[in-house]
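Structure (tokenized):
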């Protein structure tokens, strides 16, 4: 079984996917963390983030590996754990530039498709492009303000700056962020975390 949970920036995908995966007793895969790792390593390698060859070269210096723990994914480059460096504002600002590079998308998708099911896959295009035959697909939305309020707990900037950055990332990501036609769209604004997890579990078990 594959469950896909896609959605816009800060719509709650990671926490929701972790909760759904734990309830089902299966792993979850965060595709966004791999895009973030590509961005971090590109920046550290001094790459221009528009330069696909330079970003891919930075990724290939040591193998990058997604560890799909249900309580929270981790990303390793060789023996270095990159995870805690992947949610900085610097990575937030660069990641949408890196995510349009076809070679980077192929690099992420290859890694995800090597994982044996069952799992929950989380991102933007899990239900449309990467796992189009998944039997259970969900797409999370919420207003920019609600998303900025949630993310303000995880970033040092003020809420208006966070909201502006989220709106900009929505625009840059819109090509790969369309919901699958067969996805259940959930507005997470009025729901708490357990409410969203419960709605998805009800849909999976239906
Ligand atoms: O948690 P948040 O929604 O802020 O971001 P994320 O899921 O960690 O994704 C970070 C970025 O990776 C997104 O803004 C997209 O640019 C890119 N991404 C993508 O293009 N396709 C995916 N399947 C997942 C992420």
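Design, position by position:
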């Amino acid at each position: 079984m594959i469950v896909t949970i896609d959605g816009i920036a800060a719509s709650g995908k990671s926490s929701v996917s972790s909760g759904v995966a734990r309830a089902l007793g299966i792993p979850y895969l965060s595709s966004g963390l791999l895009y973030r790792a590509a961005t971090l390593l590109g920046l550290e390698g001094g790459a221009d983030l528009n330069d696909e060859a330079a970003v891919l070269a930075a990724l290939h210096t040591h193998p990058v590996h997604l560890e799909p723990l249900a309580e929270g994914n981790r990303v390793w480059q060789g023996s270095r754990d990159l995870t805690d460096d992947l949610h900085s504002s610097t990575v937030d600002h660069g990641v949408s530039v890196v995510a349009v590079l076809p070679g980077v998308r192929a690099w992420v998708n290859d890694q995800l498709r090597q994982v044996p099911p069952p799992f929950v896959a989380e991102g933007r295009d899990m239900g449309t492009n990467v796992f189009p035959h998944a039997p259970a697909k969900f797409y999370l939305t919420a207003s920019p303000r609600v998303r900025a309020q949630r993310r303000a707990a995880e970033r040092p900037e003020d809420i208006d700056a966070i909201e502006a950055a989220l709106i900009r990332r929505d625009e840059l990501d819109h090509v790969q962020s369309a919901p699958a036609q067969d996805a259940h769209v959930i507005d997470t604004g009025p729901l708490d975390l357990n409410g969203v997890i419960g709605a998805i579990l009800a849909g999976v078990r239906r």
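Reviewer-requested clarification: The pocket of cytidine-5'-diphosphate is lined by residues 9-10, 13-14, 31-32, 35-36, 95-96, 99, 123-125, 169, 173, 176 (CB under 6 Å). The chain has a mean pLDDT of 94.
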